[in-house]
Amino acid sequence: MKILIATTNPGKMAELSSMLDLDIDWCSLSDFPNTTEVEEDGQTFTENARKKALGYAKQTGLWAIADDSGLVIDALDGAPGVHSARFCGAKDKNRTLIDHRNIAKVLDLMKNTPAEERTARFVCCLCLASPDEVLFETKGTVEGMITTEEIGQGGFGYDPIFMVKDLGQTAAQLPPDQKNQVSHRGNAIKKLKPLLITQLLKI
Ligand code: IMP
Fold it and tell me: What's the pTM value of the predicted model, to 2 decimals?
């Protein structure tokens, strides 16, 4: 069975295929350079993940897994949310880097937000689609608090300002393995695995 992981990001590809750990011939969008980019213009993470999974499954004729993720901050009414990658404007294609401009915007918007109101979560939605239909979706979250300054050197995106609940460290301070264990993406992938196995047994 060949399944497309709808990303060109080698890190995401490696994380998904190794966490799923199934006897599947995985491929990524890098194997299909002629696909047209599916726009992430949905209002929710679920909508974007569905749109990408179905769009790329139709273009390649394969089952496709797509994800959408971001940071949801309660004090900002859910922002940056689906706009996480482009909170300051154009999307930063290099998502392996800390996005200091997006972080600065968040910290500025929250400069008067007291500690107890700085609750937030990372959310990840995953969707598996065949070329005809959405087969299933999963959602993973990780709860935390927004710090008042950047702490830690690792990770990417908003990791340095996300203090992971109960760990007392920001996502940027966690070793990658530990982050994957607790992360929104890790949680969504763990939920996806049994559903994928059930779906594969049907064919
Ligand atoms: P995408 O779903 O890979 O496009 O990610 C959307 C954006 O959400 C990223 O560019 C980051 O800004 C943010 N984001 C998603 N997951 C994480 C994470 O684990 N750490 C930090 N930022 C994240």
Answer: 0.94
